[in-house]
Amino acid sequence: MNDEARIREIYRRISEAAQHWPTTTLDHYQGQPFKALIAGMLSAQTREEQTLQAAETLFALADNPYDMLQLTDEQILRAVQPVSFSQNKAKYVREICQRLVEVDGGVVPRDLEKLMQYRGVGWKVAVLTRQVGFDIHDDITVDVHVNRISKRLGLVNPATKQPAKINDELKQVLPREFWARWNPLLVLFGREVCKPTYPQCATCFLRDLCPRIGVVQIGPRRFKNAEYL
Ligand code: SF4
After folding, report:
1. Torsions phi, psi of 164, nearest 5?
2. What span, in angstroms and rounded, lies between the C-alpha atoms of 15 and 21?
3. pLDDT in tens, 31-68
4. How far apart are CA 216 and CA 214, in angstroms?
5. Burial class (CB in 10 A: 0-12, 13-18, 19+), 21
6. Shortest CA distance to 153 belongs to which of 182, 131, 176?
7. Does the beta carbon of 130 sit less than 6 angstroms from any atom of ligand 1?
8. Mean pLDDT across the chain
9. Kind plus residue range of the DSSP H or E element containing 36
């Protein structure tokens, strides 16, 4: 099997399995740029459940930048308490809404560079916002799951660290039509099978296609991320 056929088969198998897995947090905000932007910012270094809990609590209080600015600092902080760095992120919520209203007329920009001018919004959150909020898939969102699994599968150089560079390498090897779903599929796959510390290689449906780069066998049916040995 050549590499393109291998990649297509990997994608096909993950897509098939994903039909039986729960959706990811950001899927809740498809086509809703404001919610995608705020929830994306809240999601940094935070587990999905906590992100969703905080985002839903916040959006129950206000679902647009104008109403959000009417909330007190305490209300925002209480709502986003479940996420990591909640104090900073609560401030970012207000600063994002202020910029939206004062600079962009209350409308979330579609442009990557413009999005990255918002507080708390780096490259990854900007790409995520465009994908979820606007259905724009010029880039592949690189989070911890995409980083880890793409390397294990041998699609990205293990030495590459920066998300934007990982995105570039992935775009060289993944067919264009896979870019949109690569992140959500790998988030699910990473939660269910190719886990951070102990990937389920013994039973994984990709084991015949995967070189398991950066993974070591520690028992008859046990595997571990080599970095955590
Ligand atoms: Fe991940 Fe192991 Fe499956 Fe490869 S074989 S995709 S490392 S769980």
Report:
1. -65, -35
2. 10
3. 999 999 999 999 999 988 899 999 999 999 999 999 99
4. 7
5. middle
6. 182
7. no
8. 95
9. helix 33-42
Report, as an integer, the average pLDDT of 61-82: 98
**C-alpha 166 – ligand 1 centre gap (Å):** 19
Mean pLDDT of 164-177: 97
206 CB less than 6 Å from ligand 1?
yes
Q: CA-to-CA distance for 183 and 147, rounded, in angstroms?
A: 10
User: Contact, 204 vs 210, CB < 8 A?
Assistant: yes
Alpha carbons 229 and 224: distance in angstroms, whole number: 7
> What is the residue with the minimal CA distance to atom 7 of ligand 1?
212
Amino acid at residue number 174? L
pLDDT band at 91 (very low <50, low <70, confident <90, very high): very high
Which structural domains are found in the chain, ordered by start?
3-23+140-228 (1.10.1670.10), 31-134 (1.10.340.30)
189 burial (CB, 10 Å; 0-12 / 13-18 / 19+) is buried
Q: Does the C-beta of 6 come closer than 6 Å to ligand 1?
A: no
Q: Is 155 in the pocket of ligand 1 (CB under 6 A)?
A: no
**pLDDT score for 71:** 98
The two tokens of residue 180 are 């949109």
